[in-house]
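re: that complex we talked abt at group meeting.

here r the seqs, copy pasted straight from the sheet so there may be weird spacing, ignore it
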Amino acid sequence: MASDTIPAKGQGGGTVLDARGVTMRFGGLTAVRNVDLTVDQGEIVGLIGPNGAGKTTFFNCMTGLYIPTEGTVRYKGTVLPHRSHRVTEAGIARTFQNIRLFANMTVLENVLVGRHTRTREGLWSALLRGPGFKKAERTSEARAMELLEFTGLAAKRDHLARNLPYGEQRKLEIARALASEPGLLLLDEPTAGMNPQETRATRELVFAIREQGISVLVIEHDMRFIFGLCDRVAVLVQGEKLVEGTPDVVQSDDRVVAAYLGTPFEGVPEDEAVAEVTAAEDALAKNTGSGSTPKTSKEGDA
Amino acid sequence: MNTLEKNTAPETAPAGGVLPLPPGPARLVALVGAAGTFVSTFLSWTYTEEFPGNLTVYGYPGGLQLLTLTGALLTLLFLLSGSGLRGLRWLTPGGPNSAVRLLALGTLGVTGYTVGAIIKNLGGLINVDPGGYIAVVMALITVIGALGLPADVPVDPEKPPANPWAQLVHSLKAPVPGRLRDMPGWVEIVIISAAFALGLYIFTFGIDTDYAELFIGYMVLVSFAFPAVGRAGLTRQLGQLTAKHRNVTVTAAFVAAFAFPFTQSNDAYASIGTNILIFATVALGLNVVVGLAGLLDLGYVAFLGVGAYTAALVSGAPTSSIGVTFPFWAAVLTGAAASLVFGVLIGAPTLRLRGDYLAIVTLGFGEIFRIGVQNLDGDSGPDITNGPNGIPNIPELEILGFNLGEEHTILGQELGRFSNYFLLMLLFTVVIVTIFRRADQSRIGRAWVAIREDETAARAMGINAFRLKLLAFALGATLAGMAGTVQAHVTYTVTPTQYKFVEAVPPNSAFLLAAVILGGMGTVSGPLIGASLLYLIPAKLQFVQEYQLLLFGVALVLLMRFRPEGLIADRRKQLEFHDTGQLDVPKEDTDLSKKVGV
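got the structure back, here u go
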């Protein structure tokens, strides 16, 4: 669908996003320290980490909401400007952790707003209502409807965004982001608050987005979701990148487990009890056939 | 009464009238009351002719009695319609009983006010004739009967209204009417035209009221009758028709407004119309800034001032420091351009601020304009504006040899000075309404609303928020400047004091903002109605002018409490403030919305 703006490269061909040495300090607090991250064409990359690790701050640095203290972010080779509307224009679209739809606009209007950077009709054209204006409006609407079909919201085009159920609001945010015809989509916790069924549907949606040649960078706490989805996962802990690699590599890394669960003290009386509980939980996880390795069975705590 | 109601509520769920009367007798009581009120207006209400309007005559009603008569007649019609009388059922597609209740209350209000005013003005109960007492008693009987009618919306058996007030509020709710059945196109067009003709008649009646008592009675009746018609479902069905015939509606509105000066024999009343239009168009310009882009501008009247001063300077007025005479079209363009430049100059540094900060800064800039103009008098600065004296003796406009200051006879009607300016201003209003609507329904308008809703998200969607906010600011300023160029000629004089933040006479920044909020943000008709009310009420009621700001504050507080979306609700705003779940459900789900019973 966005093939006219995205060069049709195969998977892994060409770097879309290249963040180097991104550091963000708020006064004395360093929220993000010297993080490098790349996303290749057609790749789905996950960014995980405990609460407060700086994931969303890193997102905001990339999308121009924050100006990073140090480091640069390149999109397809060009350094991104520190203005969020210019970043979107360049081809990076995002969703928000706490849904930020235009609550009192209809579903269709929300998506049409997403089209803003890809249309050029200014005030004069709106006032004079020439044939160009009408054509552009029709094209925008057709494209928006296409996206609503894609996300399964077409039937709700005239509903106000605020009246949609939670899961559909998340979908609408994705549709709105896709309307700006991005080459890279940044999803900030797309499954937060979703039930397992909705989470599965979201995974299918993200795969479908990748099918269209759009790379995806996703922040998530749901480990099952992230390990089932991503080609590559980076772990951010206390503002620094701890590990990066395929889901298998990351899952088997002790430091990741330690970062999420903490390291056990040696010789503490409760130690044995804790071990027992862990063993029992592992057994349970195996019985329920989750298929995940023992180390990720605690993902609910993440 | 309360306990009785509570006991009976669960069994007779669909009832729920405020007074525990059986529906049949209640209807009969209301019918008798309304008919009695109707008849009583043909009696004499007072002995002397000292009370304005001559209420002393037996045989035909006069003055305030006419209002009572109208109220009683409407009550009667809606009552009969509610009881299923053939040929009248179309009157109440929504809730017949809530409409009757409101009308009965309104009639009682007018009648009670009239008799009260007779007692107060003439000094004592003795001045009221039996006819007056009969009218009040009959109106009271109507109200009692009306309150006994069952509620239009069934009471939720789980949550019955807790107290009499809640019961009353509930009994005034009405269901949404269904879709209007299809009629031939010309019938629909006739209905729309008739509605606008009626609107024009009601409006001119208000403007032409020649004594305060009549105007107050008129306001009381109108403020009950309009909600009643809305409860009955007629407003919504008319809305369906106007949505279907958009062009016819716009034309009808324009024709009705165009016809206004031809209904005025007195040019003083036409001046009210002209000033309302100036006020309303400026409010509409402010609506771009406040209603669409969500920027609170407290210094907006400065742009009107820039336009007016520019027009005055290039008008060829003898006191103008420039001494050039532009033709009117050039003066309008110059005024609009000057306002545009001023708007960008003010907007560029201030629009980086959000919310309250922006409001304070615009308030400051508004005052800077006024004080600046006041000081450009040759003493404190260059002599451009004559300081506090302003620019007097602005000549009348002459367009294509048509002098707007003189009387002309058009279509057999003498059109005075203000009527001429009214027609000119109407042309401006049409232009500004068109600009507002077209800007609203476009990519730019959507971006403005997006910024208003969530600026961060709007930026993240690729909207250059600063540029679009500046555009809204500049467009609003230009529209106000255009209106200002006419205002300078209408008022003959421009002085700095006309452009204060708040003052007794609108338009000023506070009243402009109030007109937008009162009428309804983001709509076209909202500011027009808000401005009409805010101008008309003080213009008609001399005694209000003393307490204007107090009453104005009280009105705003009440409005924010009971109808925060304004008189004319933008669909979005209505949903925002009255969240009933699925109010906005599109066509196919009408059953659901009926069940919810909005």
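couple things i noticed - The radius of gyration of chain A is 21 Å. The first strand of chain A starts at residue 15 and ends at 26.
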